[in-house]
Amino acid sequence: MASVSKLPPPSPLCILLAVVLAVSASAALSARLGALRAGGGSGDVHDLLPQYGFPRGILPDNVASYSLSDDGAFEVRLRGPCYVQFDQLVYYDRKISGKLSYGSVSGVSGIQAKKLFVWLPVTGIKSDSGSGMIEFYVGALSEKLPAAQFEAVPACKSNACDGNPEAASV
């Protein structure tokens, strides 16, 4: 039978060192996660969107910063207002806000879509990964579009006609 050697009890200094290292590691991890939630560091809001069931291209390429609170409330700041041509012409204000949860954005402000000759505020967005569709809400009305249309991050245009003369008449 093999003999088992008994280890001496750890010294108070070793215990203190282990506690300090654990607290430091936890603080560093919390700071890094906080920086990512606040849009700091190398965090890119476009990389965060798939974690919530949305394609990267639901927001334009001119994002300056973003914040996301623990309850899902978010704010995205753009370098300036812009237009993007999807199936419809979409206007993004300098500040976009709402409440994000998996597959859903509610209380949206700062996004409008042009339908015929009228600009309509987008109030909510839902993603259905099963059907591959994104549903945009304008009050009680909604429209479904293929999520594939939003995979690439779109370039911002400073006005409705930049690079697409037909965009102004959509």
Characterization of the model:
- This protein has helices spanning 12-37, 45-48, and strands at 63-68, 73-78, 82-85, 89-101, 104-115, 118-121, 124-128, 133-138, 141-146.
- β5 (104-115) and β6 form a beta hairpin.
- The chain is an alpha+beta fold.
- It is globular, with a radius of gyration of 23 Å.
- 18% of the residues lie in helices and 36% in strands.
- The N and C termini lie far apart (86 Å).
- Strands 1, 2, 3, 4, 5, 6, 7, 8 and 9 form a nine-stranded antiparallel β-sheet that branches.
Characteristic terms for this protein:
single chain, 170 residues, alpha+beta, nine-stranded antiparallel sheet, 36% strand, globular
How would you concisely characterize the structure shown here?
By secondary structure, this protein is of the alpha+beta class. The protein is 18% helix and 36% strand.
> Residue ranges: pLDDT <50 for 5 or more in a row?
13-42, 164-170
Global morphology:
globular
State the helix count. 2
Largest sheet: 9 strands, antiparallel
- According to DSSP, the number of beta strands is 9
Structural class, by secondary structure, is alpha+beta
Distance between the termini: 86 Å
Name the assembly state. Answer: single chain
Global Rg: 23 Å
